[in-house]
Amino acid sequence: xxxxxxxxxxxxxxxxxxxxxxxxxxxxxxxxxxxxxxxxxxxxxxxxxxxxxxxxxxxxxxxxxxxxxxxxxxxxxxxxxxxxxxxxxxxxxxxxxxxxxxxxxxxxxxxxxxxxxxxxxxxxxxxxxxxxxxxxxxxxxxxxxxxxxxxxxxxxxxxxxxxxxxxxxxxxxxxxxxxxxxxxxxxxxxxxxxxxxxxxxxxxxxxxxxxxxxxxxxxxxxxxxxxxxxxxxxxxxxxxxx
Length: 242
Ligand SMILES: Nc1nc2c(ncn2[C@@H]2O[C@H](COP(=O)(O)OP(=O)(O)O)[C@@H](O)[C@H]2O)c(=O)[nH]1
Ligand SMILES: [Mg+2]
Hints:
Layout: E1 10-16, H1 22-31, E2 38-44, H2 51-61, E3 66-70, H3 77-90, E4 95-98, H4 110-116, E5 122-126, E6 133-134, H5 140-157, E7 169-172, H6 176-183, H7 191-201, E8 206-210, E9 212-213, H8 225-241
Parallel strand pairs: 1-2, 1-4, 2-3, 5-8, 6-9
Antiparallel strand pairs: 4-7, 5-7
The structure holds guanosine-5'-diphosphate (GDP) and magnesium ion.
């Protein structure tokens, strides 16, 4: 197949940093779901574990749309998403879904999320609606920090969506001009909440789809308390300044 003339209908954007073990497994699982004309965009930030090379090999083998964006160094999730989204739009994707490489976002939910995007502007994979939840192995403390953190950001930003920090989200490409390409300021952890904020300000049709967040089994998390505090402060500024 001549890949350069091949336009995907749904593109899954996966940012990676040291996900060499997870990436082949998740691509395989997503490909086997039967989503029509699905493609992939992997945005790798020069992972020291060689994820970029693994991604290139997957791209060579994949029968369909598969692009790997190589960035030299770790530049944060927000900019990785935006580069991935831009590439998806350039390649005429109709639906764009972002998810992590580490199986915290269960691939099987993609089927419903992809279908919802036929009628909705945005679909948010949600831990905080009926049917959603977090890893049963989490301690009560960790569960409380997660749900209070989410509640705090909702309050701070005046958001209706229940899971404001979800990184499991899909967009109908027609809404991109309005929300992603013109407004976004945050690059780090606050990125998800900021997307939710602008989507609400623009009165987009948002659906939430429940999922259970499962802790990664392979590799290491990159989250830190400092990242969360910085995001809260920047989000507050966005709310105040509009
Ligand atoms: N390209 C890129 N991907 C990143 C970066 N930081 C994290 N990731 C990826 O983003 C996803 C979420 O990161 P993860 O460490 O699992 O965050 P956590 O689940 O919130 O602890 C995973 O697929 C990571 O490999 C980054 O700076 N650049
Ligand atoms: Mg993770």
